Amino acid sequence: MGEGNKPYWPPQDQRRDNRTARPMVYENYDILNRATVSHNQYVRALRRTIRERSAVRTMREDAQRCSLVPVNGVTGLASGDVPLMAAVRNERTRLPPFLAHYRALGVTRFLVVDDESSDGTTDYLADQPDVDLFRSDIRFQAARYGTMWFYTLAQRYGVGRWYVIVDVDEYLVYPGMADHPLPDLIASLTRHRQSRLLAPMIDLLPDADLRQTPFDPGRWPWDVAPYLDPVGYEMRYKSIGPLITGGPLSKLFGTLHLLQKYPVMFWDKSAIHYPDIHNLYPFQRSSPQIQACLLHCKLFADLEKRSLAAIADQQHAQHAEKYRVYYDEIRSGLQLDSEIQRCVRYEGPEHMAELGFMEDIDW
Question: How far apart (Å, rounded) are the C-alpha atoms in residues 241 and 39?
């Protein structure tokens, strides 16, 4: 899957028929998937890729100086392995359902960078037989918010293969996942000449007061926070790829949240997260087609405590400004009632496809 000159987007006969397909929840989605517009998007993205080569080269050089030290035993990957990359800090209570979900999907190895956890996360992960755990000589912010760690892991474990890359509060879902684990999803992407999977983060909300809804490591997060907002999303196409905004976090806190991510990607010698974790270089490979979502499980009782810790740690973008907003709003008595009234209960990936959050997959 080299860079080449041909689009990585599906040819017209493999795209969904916009005249008959169900409407999607993202404003502009149908327009962006028309062939004539998609060609223009591809050309813009290719030109941006060429312009950004020097900056990307510098980032790769910086990443190569990033050192990752193994905490437990580390072995190579077999050809059939499905590896997942993640960066963690004080996520002990969140890890059991996260690991269980991705194991069930077919992940065979977890490649995790621990950013100075102090709550038992390190010991817990070190004891997991399918986890390769690392520490870094630089913190999260210096690692360009984890992207340099992921690049270093890809160089260590091998380019020219598929990786899953998610945060601990993100759960990948897609139509047919009960019968089609990740190897089948990867085979479908390969068959349709896609080198990355676009999946927007969809916030889940609890049905009770936020402060009275603790995260329960013994339950699936969507059983505790079961609501999602079926309206209020927008997709635009920039020269670096699709831009998706909206969702409950934006409405509740009045801040802009980028929702687009690429949780499944083919990492070759050209690929790298740039300019941030929400976008992938080379840009022309990023199709606006959505066939999966990330359930974003952030709104629990510990968000106030986590926000305060993020403010003190100063490792997030813009001096943790979003976490300052979270903290202030929660302390001021954040109410979810008005948002819950327009939400629907999450009933599984097929239900999300019916609602228009993602397209069906041609298995």
Answer: 13
Tokens of 274: 């740039």
- The side-by-side arrangement of strands in the sheet containing 83-88 is 68-70, 131-136, 109-114, 83-88, 161-165, 260-267, 196-203, 293-296, 170-173
Alpha-carbon distance of 168 to 125, in angstroms, equals 13
Q: Which residues contact 208 (CB under 8 A, 6 or more apart)?
A: none
pLDDT at 284 over 80: yes
Residue-wise pLDDT tens digits, 19-54:
345 789 999 887 667 666 678 888 999 999 999 999
Q: Looking at the chain, which runs of residues are DSSP E strands?
A: 26-27, 68-70, 83-88, 109-114, 131-136, 161-165, 170-173, 196-203, 227-228, 233-238, 241-246, 260-267, 272-273, 280-281, 293-296, 344-345
> For residue 153, which amino acid is it?
L
C-alpha 196: how far from its chain's center? Answer: 12
Q: What is the DSSP string of 157-203?
A: H-SSEEEEE--TTEEEE-TTTTT--HHHHHHHHHHTT-SEEEEEEEE
In this prediction the pTM is 0.93
Which of 46, 63, 83, 19 lies closest to 282 in space, CA to CA? 46
Using DSSP, state whether 242 is helix, strand or coil.
Answer: strand
3-state SS, residue 143: coil
How do the residues of the chain divide into helix, strand and coil, expressed in percent and rounded to 5? 35, 20, 45
pLDDT digits (tens, 9 = 90+) for 292-301: 999 999 999 9
